[in-house]
Amino acid sequence: MNETPYPQHTALSLAASSVPVLPLRRGKVPFGNCTACVDNACGGRPNMKVPGPCWCAAPCHGWAAATTDPAVIVSRAWAAAWRQAVCVAYHPGGAGLTVVDLDDADAIAWARTALPATRTVPTSRGEHWIYRGAMTSRNAVRPGVDIKSTMAYARWLGYGTGTIAALPDAVRALVVKEPSPAPRASQALPGLLRGGQGECPHRTPVFLDRGVAMAEQRITEASSAVHATVYRTFLAVLSTHGQCGCLTDAHVARLFTAAQAKGESARHCADAWTNARTTLGL
Predict the structure, then answer these.
(1) Of all helices (H) and strands (E), which one includes residue 77?
(2) What is the Cα–Cα distance from 137 to 147, expressed in whole angstroms?
(3) Which residues are bridge partners to 161 per DSSP?
(4) pTM of this prediction?
(5) Chain segment 225-277, per-residue pLDDT in tens
(6) Do 135 and 150 form a contact (C-beta atoms < 8 A)?
């Protein structure tokens, strides 16, 4: 039995309000990719800057399948998914929203003292606090607290109560990782420290900017094997600058922009970056 009566009707209603939606199967998870897209065999979604249908027309690629197009929602390609769907999810970032997912009573108590009041929606274990504005998503920002906005989905649980407040800096700050401290000077082997200051040399702006500029140039000049070039370039940048917290969102954005100018999708960039971090154990 569906947990949400007529989930397709709910999806159409939300889409009419410019909320990108997708079906969830039992377990409250997205449907797996179709045979053409399994393991990203299709090369990933061609239009990852905004949510929307994959070229295969099925509800593939998780959160990125979310759409506001009623023709897609009622299409034959989505019909089988709706027959099995137990509820509806939405892409908060695509709707210009951020969901603070509070999993338990302790997390709710923390939010009531640390965050401004906003619209709240009860969940099976806690509450969703919904703010107006999109940001980077991240799980486990503190015990029992997840942030769901861009490149994420949240289960639709109703409109809740209260007025949606503007996204506060206190929420944005939750996903900002503190940079790793500079390597400490070794008391036994001080001669191994370059420069003798015990500071990370990558923090020199000229050194870091030159490295990022060279990486951009390498991607821009790629005439073939762009996928592989982007991945190898990301790997090289991270191997040099990934351990010490030098890289900022602005540096990463420059690399992603260069890759997307060569035809790479935002999803390809994100996957390549994640894979490079995993390879290096970051």
Answers:
(1) helix 76-84
(2) 5
(3) 120
(4) 0.62
(5) 777 788 888 877 777 777 666 777 778 888 888 888 888 888 778 888 887 77
(6) yes
